[in-house]
Every structure is written in structure tokens, then in C-alpha cells.
Amino acid sequence: NRTISPAAAHDFNCLHVPAITFAEVPALILKERPDILHFSGHGNKDSLTFEDKSGRSTTVKGAAIIALLRETRQFITCLFLNACHSADLAKEASEFIPYTIGFPDNIEDDLSESFSVAFYQTLSQGYSVPSCFELAKSTIMSGLEKERWPVLNQNESLPNFTKIIFRLPK
Questions:
Q1: Which residues pair with 58 in a beta bridge?
Q2: pLDDT (tens digit, 9 = 90+) per residue, 38-89?
Q3: Checking CA distances to 121, which of 9, 27, 112, 113 falls within 20 to 30 Å?
Q4: Angle at 110 between CA 104 and CA 112, to 5 degrees
Q5: HSE (CB half, 13 Å, CA atoms) of 70?
Q6: How far is CA 9 from CA 18, 76, 100, 103, 125, in A?
């Protein structure tokens, strides 16, 4: 929550759910109806890592993740996959989610965190998702080769597309 603008903190609800199992995600999305769904963890070209019931890491294939997101798409305006090799999965989800963000390669934890902090700081001040993405990307560009920069996909043809997710009260 340190990334949320103090002017917006009272209207910006951020729910942190550590060590969630994939089986718990659908009910959580249906209950919370998030505008932004942020996954932070490990990823491969076609999977993300969650925990199983025993607390061990388990790989969830992209097809299962895409099926879940397709069924809950009406709630999600922005999907942020803050994980290594998540760009392809983000691209696939952009068919039905207005904004998706992913990383095409490995991403160091400190750069990933810097990017996230800058993204949410500007988003909570009422800037557009593309603008927030570009500002956040600028904070890590010097630490990464261009082919490793995060990727933003946007699909303006979707009914829940909006340029600005969060507006500051007047």
C-alpha cells in the first residue's frame, strides 16, 4: 500500500493474498471483483507458479489460467503478470482483458518491484494505464536490455475498455 497516492488511499482498496492456491483464485475474483488483478511470482513460457494445499510450489499451465480469466473477464480491466516469461500469457489474455502486462524474459526482483511501485503510484493519481506503464518502464529501462522490457497489450474493442481505471476525487 506504500505505492498508493495518499490523496487516493481512502478509495483504493488493495488486497494482498500471499501463498494462494490456484483453486482459491476463482472464488476470490468473484468475491472481490478486482479492476486490476496482479500476480507476482514465478513464471515460465506457458505457466505460473502457485502453492498447493501443502504449501509447496506447483506449476499451473497457461490453458487453465486463460480459462479462469476468460470466465472472470467482466471484472478485470488490467491483468498484471509480474513474473518471468509472462508476456505470452499476457498477450493471450489480451483477447478478452482490456490491458495486460507481462515480462518477456527473466526479471530481477528489484527491477520488478521498482516497476510495480512506479506503476501503482501513477495509476492511483488518475493517469491512464498506458501512461503509467511507460512511466514505470522508464524506471527500469537502464537496468534491462530492450528485449527484456515489460510489454503492455491493450484491446480497445472490449466493452470494459477505459483509458483511466482510477480517478481522483475532485
A1: 50
A2: 999 999 989 999 999 998 999 999 999 999 999 999 999 999 999 999 999 9
A3: 27
A4: 35
A5: 9
A6: 21, 20, 23, 28, 10
